[in-house]
């Protein structure tokens, strides 16, 4: 399986994008389970608290048609663009 490796995930082409980031299809390297990865562009936030607020809001969402937060991590990415 191809894809750029970020953390424990193989990251593939984005399937959605917005003003602050993109959402990619990913698979976990060990389990092979599919997930969605939301990559947030930190420069769009004025402070760290704004990012933490979004994460906390996303953690509270529980709906059949919405993704739930499974993992949150921060990583500086200097590799090739995965747009």
From TrEMBL:
Keywords: Kinase, Transferase
EC number: 2.7.11.1
Stored Pfam families: Pkinase
Top-level enzyme category: transferase
Family matches, as InterPro entries: Kinase-like_dom_sf, Prot_kinase_dom
Keyword Kinase carried by entry: yes
Residue ranges that the Swiss-Prot or TrEMBL entry lists as coiled coil: none
Superkingdom classification of source: Eukaryota
Molecular-function GO terms, alphabetical: ATP binding; protein serine/threonine kinase activity
Protein name: Protein kinase
Organism encoding this protein: Extremus antarcticus
This protein's encoding gene: SNF1_2
